[in-house]
Amino acid sequence: AGNSKSSKSTAVPPGPPMYLDLVYIPNHSNSKNVDVEFFKRVRSSYYVVSGNDSAAEEPSRVVLDSLLEGKAQWDSNMQVTLIPTHDSKVMREWYQDTHEKQQDLNIMVLASSSTVVMQDESFPACKIEL
């Protein structure tokens, strides 16, 4: 009788945190696979946020907000850099709406200002030194 199950499944089960240098947020930053628990457990200096499909809600505002909520529960204020692979409306709005909280949590969002041209294809680039 005292057994209650949550209707929402957690992408990452509770447990001790893992510290990584670089993490690609899974499934184009879709909220079906990433939640607050993910960011509480998977702690990284750099997170790559992909997704450029507003119809599929990728990247998801819920995932971006989960980063803020999860990072707020870390026991340190280490620098975190968010690397978006696309300039999306969701990312721009989230950045503007939460900029003060990002600063409080020591989160920096990179702009895609550098471009690489390779074999007649161009794409944004970012240099990361680990």
TrEMBL record:
<dbReference type="GO" id="GO:0005874">
    <property type="term" value="C:microtubule"/>
</dbReference>
<dbReference type="GO" id="GO:0045202">
    <property type="term" value="C:synapse"/>
</dbReference>
<dbReference type="GO" id="GO:0030425">
    <property type="term" value="C:dendrite"/>
</dbReference>
<dbReference type="GO" id="GO:0016358">
    <property type="term" value="P:dendrite development"/>
</dbReference>
<dbReference type="GO" id="GO:0008017">
    <property type="term" value="F:microtubule binding"/>
</dbReference>
<dbReference type="GO" id="GO:0005875">
    <property type="term" value="C:microtubule associated complex"/>
</dbReference>
<protein>
    <submittedName>
        <fullName>MAP1B protein</fullName>
    </submittedName>
</protein>
<dbReference type="GO" id="GO:0000226">
    <property type="term" value="P:microtubule cytoskeleton organization"/>
</dbReference>
<dbReference type="GO" id="GO:0031114">
    <property type="term" value="P:regulation of microtubule depolymerization"/>
</dbReference>
<dbReference type="GO" id="GO:0003779">
    <property type="term" value="F:actin binding"/>
</dbReference>
<dbReference type="GO" id="GO:0007409">
    <property type="term" value="P:axonogenesis"/>
</dbReference>
<dbReference type="GO" id="GO:0005829">
    <property type="term" value="C:cytosol"/>
</dbReference>
<dbReference type="InterPro" id="IPR026074">
    <property type="entry name" value="MAP1"/>
</dbReference>
<dbReference type="GO" id="GO:0043025">
    <property type="term" value="C:neuronal cell body"/>
</dbReference>
